[in-house]
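Morning F.,

Quick status update on the modeling queue. The single chain you submitted on Monday has been processed. Sequence for confirmation:
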Amino acid sequence: MASEPWLRLVHAASSGGAHWRKLLRTKASAEVLVGLSGSELAAAGVTPGEAARLHDADAPELERWRRWLDGPDRHLVGLSDPRYPRLLKTLSDAPLALWVHGRDLALLDGPQLAIVGSRNPTHNGRDTAKQFARYLSERGLTITSGLATGIDGASHEGALDGGASTVAVLGCGLDTLYPQSNAALAQRIAAEGALVSEFPPGTPPRPANFPQRNRIIAGSSLGTLVVEAARRSGSLITARLAADYGREVFAIPGSIHNPLAKGCHELIRQGAKLVDDVADILVELAPLLNTQIDAPAPGDTRETESFVFTKEAAYTDLLEAMGFDPVSLSSLAERSGLTPAELSSMLLILEFEGLVEALPGGRYARLAMRNS
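Structure tokens below.
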């Protein structure tokens, strides 16, 4: 369960997080901020109203949030929490905290690919999203999307079928699932992946929330794939945010007669990478998985680390731990002592080297060493 200081800080920042983000990065923790006196907060630029909200332990909102957090697999992950996604933390407007419903918080910091698109896709578009998501999930990438109907839902389904996992970012509180038509899918994601929102429990799905939601999808991911999108589409917002953040942007082309292909064509003209095969994505992401991509955010003094080990010995040890019989990711984690995020990245690199094969059901098999 989240600490009381974080609940109070989120409560104080309900009218805007920029001011509190700056203070948090200066003061290092919510515990320190909550412990400051009214005069100390005033000296730091905090208004009396904000200070009162920070110190109000009996606010009705706080009690509602505490009750929600009392449920199983529910978390509040603050900006200074080591479990907070490092890629997302580099954004100047990173959420002050993330509400999470899921068992494995390591998913938030593992290698993610966003897949987004139309809420009313063609049959082929939906199938393509599901197939791409499943294939990429089988290779260890977490698929991130927004739980909307259409391409988002198909992407989540494909990822779950692929044996890795998926993250759904919502534009409302996690106690107010939207859309309701995806309620069963949301339950499955909470059990096998993670539901994420920066909006506290009790927040309805307001239209203004979804562009904010999109920056989390784009900012948490190595890249964004757009499957089908019209010219005026929220998916293009996600893709443009990804480009602004220096992430990879991919788009699948379509028929010139399909209005849902026009947004993808526009992205390609603007520099997005044209994709007609899953390998097009893996080739672009492979170098990112083997380099230091998690530059620290301002004020972050933690020692930086990449998603994978770059020393050859680490890969050799992993291959020895695999043996030559098919092995699941969980079994391999027990043998090697590595986290699922580290394993997923390393296995993807080894697959590109022709040393490992991804098998159905989320298992991996070591291949014979290639002749040089």
